Amino acid sequence: MRRLGLRGVRRGQPVLTTSPDRQAGRAPDLVDRDFTAARPNQLWVVDMTYVPTWSGTVFTAFVSDVYSRRVVGWRCASRMPTELPLDALEMALWTRERAGQTRDGRLDGLIHHSDAGSQYTAIRYGDRLAEASAVASIGSVGDSYDNAMAESLIGLYKSECVRRDGPLRTVEDLELATASWVHWFNTNRLHSKIGNIPPVEYENNYYAHQQARDEQRSGEPGLH
């Protein structure tokens, strides 16, 4: 990097954007800080952050697939109600449905991991997860390590998008910048954890290999 004149970005300190609802039901932690997955749509992690703009504070919510690091859903809003992360979840489900990866709108066996913020423990949010046949998983209160991969994505977002393109004026400006960054992140950015290729390419490789295996099995004796 020094020889090429490259320099890594520095990430800021994590900031608390969600607060737990002490009265809400609590799903168990099914991840236990093991952020690994053997296939797409096995484990999603979600989180949200705030972005200061000239017109006020704006919030961004993300849904990320652990297998490929792909951002499958996101939303920006000037407020932080349940609708914000719920809209990001809807985008993620639509992304997978559009790709033909859902069955009647369901992703059976998907684990959805979040912090204990009230937005993620809301009844409406839980009902939508149940409709999608997803299983909720929640880390411990006030411990960013229990949702470390989602926190890492937000750190990259702040470093590579918000600080680079900012200061941004309005929520519309942030939406445009975020859309551009997510597209680049998914289709162009190289990720060391997945062999220095972009997330979309990594997923495409998985499905290509799966199709080849299925075709090979169908050609074996006794399977016709």
Automatic annotation (TrEMBL):
Record-linked PROSITE patterns: INTEGRASE
Entry protein name: Integrase catalytic domain-containing protein
Domain Integrase catalytic as annotated: residue spans: 36-206
Gene3D superfamilies: Ribonuclease H-like superfamily/Ribonuclease H
Organism: Pseudonocardia xishanensis
Transmembrane segments: none
